[in-house]
Amino acid sequence: MKQTAGIHHITAIVGDPQENVDFYAAVLGLRLVKKTVNFDDPGTYHLYFGDKAGSPGTIITFFPWPGAQRGMIGDGQVGVTTYVVPAGALSFWEKRLHSFSIPFSKQERFGEQYLAFGDPHGLQLEMVEREEGRQNSWAFNGVTPDVAIKGFGGAVLFSAQPEKTAWLLQHVMGLERVAEEGGLIRFRAAGEIGNVIDVKTTSSGRGQMGAGTVHHIAWRAKDDDDQLEWQKLVANEGYGVTQVTDRQYFNAIYFREHGHILFEIATDTPGFSIDEAPEHMGESLKLPPQYEIHREKIEELLIPVEVRKIM
């Protein structure tokens, strides 16, 4: 059976782009690894945040639409995005969220402690401590590598048909079904980060796309050949999978599973240093070749954003 290593990236819809940058870069201490545009809507940013290298399994991406209508988190979506931090780091994050006046709660499931909170536009996030996963060497605005977010811990999926989503994760994506409690089924992928997926077994009500909701979750394929194997496998299981789409920093295929969640399978290669030196990733607006001739017009449409320190 094929096995994905876990989450490649998660993409969400938010509001004001500077608020988005301030929260994920200055508060959470992630690196803005790529500033580009939505390839299907080039008048909108596509912002990528992750660890220092922009590694698969660490990247959260955003389509920021100022004034966008608030969405509703529910069935057919990633309900909660989980970050993993080093063992012993949650106390730092409690103090940090408190210092920024960000409300949070403490929760427990499957024997782990979680710190749950929201971003400025309503996206539901949480942090969990785990030993596995390499340290993130990026340091910014008071977040040092010993406490920095390592990447995704995983996600909680809200499905319109939980058992069918669970079947897909286990029998197609190759995750191991490891536990069930409290209305959740837990799965584990082969990688060290982005590898723990919980599926909610009861309905949360129908989700509605908008600001503060996840657009899709992407799973890892090693390379183009591996992705083509995934494409064939998914199609053979009866899912309507797309052709390969070039997303500049990875290639992507998409399908909507039976619980209505949009799944992507993305390649680990070529990565985010393909058009910028690693030490300068995220510093300038990068456009795919088809839009470079329209750079001046695109830059006029986009609201300027900057990575800045805030206290």
UniProtKB/TrEMBL annotation:
VOC domain sequence ranges: 6-130, 151-268
Key words of the record: Dioxygenase, Oxidoreductase
InterPro entries associated with the record: Extradiol_RC_dioxygenase, Glyas_Bleomycin-R_OHBP_Dase, Glyas_Fos-R_dOase_dom, VOC_core
Top-level taxon in the UniProt lineage: Bacteria
Gene Ontology MF terms in the entry: dioxygenase activity
A Pfam family per the record: Glyoxalase
Listed PANTHER family: RING-CLEAVING DIOXYGENASE MHQE-RELATED (PTHR36110)
Protein name: Ring-cleaving dioxygenase
